[in-house]
Amino acid sequence: MTDLIIAPDTETLWRQYSARLCVFIAHRIDDADAVDDMVQDIFLRVHERMGSVRDTGRIESWLFQIACNAIVDHYRRNRAGEPVPDWI
User: Fold this and answer.
1) Does the 10-77 domain belong in CATH 1.10.1740.10?
2) Average pLDDT for consecutive 10-residue bins of the chain (88 residues)?
3) How is 31-76 classified by DSSP, letter by letter?
């Protein structure tokens, strides 16, 4: 018989980690709107993948790894040499 793993719900994780994730990302990206969008996207990913959590003791590192991946994705998307028009 396997032990049942009960992961915290997304709302609990939001309350516990959203401010820290904002600070972590803001130190790496100089765009407050992008930071807010990124944190929301991170928690959407967390919500979608919460069922795959096997070790609840590693949730914090899992969250920050998702954040690191999101930061890398942000820079990959924005490295094209053309400036983004103001009207977008």
Assistant:
1) yes
2) 57 90 93 93 88 80 92 81 47
3) -HHHHHHHHHHHHHHHHHHGGG---GGGHHHHHHHHHHHHHHHHHH
